[in-house]
Design brief:
heterodimer, B: 3 helices, rod-shaped
């Protein structure tokens, strides 16, 4: 997000921060366009930061960890505990997936908090692919582990037969709503947060030119903008956490469909 | 000389005071409550819209407008509420289980 939200015409333009533009000229592999855009660039950056951090945190492997290694170990423990408490011990097999997902979203969200950085998770195409990956993985695991028994998720045992025609469509809708919910929640939260920040800061900048009363308004708006920035820092973490914990809950459903 | 039982009790108290696990537990708990608060509202809307979408698709495929749309809109709304009720039940069950294990500890 750019610090000054003034568009060329002098009005407020809170949307242009989400524009995607090419950084390369017509790169192609086998007829497919593989141009690097600012979105791909910042996704690579997120991946590079995570790999760099965990490489530095784990390459010493000391018995008594230093600060960096402790941070790495705490990150590991945090995700491991999240999986253990929601999906159970057998969910730990899918630790790498949840870990990658959580840290990619976390890094992408926090990179977006820097001025002039691009927030990749504010695009539904990015969050949609992430949600789709979770959905496909959970569905494949569900059928691989339980076979046709996974379909019992849609028709819980102990339900009277005459309720089933009503219940099955409802369960199917709620199952297919999962990836959409995951994608939409992350996208909407990041988008709304960044628009709000941009509006507040542009408003402050515009009011600064309106005399003494304007300066008071600027100061007031800036205080709110700082508070919202703090809130966005929390939201950036919470959205990554929600995404990861819901993935664990869905994994738990796939591993133990009848409970 | 201090009473050895008293010393043991004081060592245990000191151990309890430094338990790092306790801190991690409360952090995760706060995070999950906040996550639940933020998380489940979107599910309601998405399920409703998805239900409407499925209904609309069936309508255009079979020419039954607006029957399927209306039926699946209701299904979607129920699915959304069902998700929230389930999430609430899970949280309550977790809280009850935690309370039980806390009592077992003491």
């Amino acid at each position: 997000m750019a610090l000054l939200g003034m568009a060329e015409g002098g009005g407020i333009d809170p949307i242009s921060q989400f524009n995607i533009y090419r950084r390369t000229e017509n790169w192609a592999i086998g007829g497919w366009n593989v141009d690097i855009t600012n979105a791909t660039l910042f996704m690579f950056l997120a991946a590079a930061i995570i790999i760099g951090f965990f490489w530095m945190a784990s390459n010493r492997g000391a018995l008594v960890p230093d600060r960096l290694q402790s941070a790495g170990e705490i990150s590991y423990e945090f995700v491991a505990n999240m999986i253990r408490s929601t999906a159970g011990e057998d969910g730990l097999k899918y630790f790498p997936f949840v870990f990658t997902l959580f840290f990619f979203i976390l890094a992408a969200n926090y990179i977006g908090m820097f001025p002039y950085a691009h927030t990749t998770t504010s695009h539904i195409v990015v969050t949609g692919v992430l949600g789709m990956a979770v959905f496909l993985l959970v569905t494949i695991i569900g059928f691989a582990k339980n076979g046709a028994g996974f379909l019992k998720l849609f028709a819980p045992s102990g339900v009277p037969v005459f309720v089933l025609p009503l219940l099955i469509p409802i369960e199917i809708i709620s199952y297919f709503a999962r990836p959409l919910t995951l994608a939409f929640r992350l996208f909407a939260n990041m988008l709304a947060g960044h628009i709000m920040l941009k509006l507040l800061v542009s408003f402050a900048a515009m009011m600064a030119g309106a005399g003494l009363v304007g300066l008071v308004g600027t100061a007031f708006t800036m205080v709110i903008a700082v508070a919202i920035t703090a809130l966005e820092m929390l939201v950036a973490f919470l959205q990554a956490y929600v995404f990861a914990i819901l993935t664990c809950v869905y994994l738990s459903d796939a591993l133990h469909p009848h409970h | 000389m201090a009473d050895p039982d008293d010393l043991k009790r004081r060592i245990e108290a000191a151990h309890d005071a430094q338990k790092p696990k306790q801190l991690a537990d409360t952090t995760t708990e706060t995070a999950s409550s906040a996550a639940a608060a933020l998380g489940h509202s979107v599910g309601l809307v998405v399920a409703l819209v998805l239900g409407a979408g499925i209904g609309h698709f069936i309508d255009t495929a079979l020419g039954t407008a607006p029957l399927a749309l209306l039926i699946f809109l209701v299904f979607g709304a129920i699915a959304g509420f069902l998700n929230i009720i389930r999430a609430g039940q899970q949280m309550a069950a977790k809280a009850a289980a935690k309370q039980g294990s806390d009592q077992a500890d003491t």
